[in-house]
Model the fold of this input.
Amino acid sequence: MEVVIVPDATAGGELIAEAIAALLSRKPDALLGVATGSTPLPIYQALTAKVRSGAVDASRARICQLDEYVGLPAGHPESYRSVVLREVIEPLGLSEKSFMGPDGSAEDVQAACEAYDKALTEAGGVDLQLLGIGTDGHIGFNEPCSSLASRTRIKTLTEQTRIDNARFFDDDIAQVPRHVITQGIGTILESRHPVLLATGEGKADAVARTVEGPVASVVPASALQLHPHATVVVDEAAASKLKLADYFRATYAAKPQWQGL
Ligand code: PGA
Done:
């Protein structure tokens, strides 16, 4: 995988927004997989600025969701559908019709998972999948020991993830759902270009295990090592435990610009 070390979260957001812009100029109706959480927000802000300035035409872009809580009432402000509508769809001036995601309030959750996995394939597959990383190494909500071949399915959140996400629920862990629907690791690996952004000291350990550790389901993000075109963008703090940081810096500095991410 390619590791790009950037000075800070804003620079990471800008770099990834440029990659999305390049994708949309070659494929205007690209299917862009979006992630939630705090980390990707600078990407959406940078992309929105490009769209508003006329530098990028995102009008035909299609957006799909990575994961969703199970059991939140439809329209709950912290359901990931609501978050993506608020942070991505509305700022980019897209309509809900261009957006697909799993139904976290379905009565038959298993059927909803299978339907979503199939819908992604039928839509032609995800062109660029944005990912964050959990402090426990999860991608999407594939918690440690998720099958590396997993498809979209229901998962139970670890206590650590529920603690991490309580900040979105009035700091009250009791309000954080226990179950989620997530694209599986096998599903994520089918995207043409997974791009993981990690920022802050709190992610340094998970990043080091992802990039420099063995491929192991106990660190779900390490599965990205199996993808022929995976990019990991990290700020200095998140890169602080990488033994090969200087090598990654030198490689990126020497990369021909035409290659993009
Ligand atoms: P965060 O979440 O960006 O809010 O840290 C990342 C994740 O859990 O994937």
About this structure: The chain has a mean pLDDT of 97. The longest strand covers residues 2-6. Residues 37-39, 132-134 surround 2-phosphoglycolic acid (CB under 6 Å). Residues 9-26 form the longest helix (18 residues).
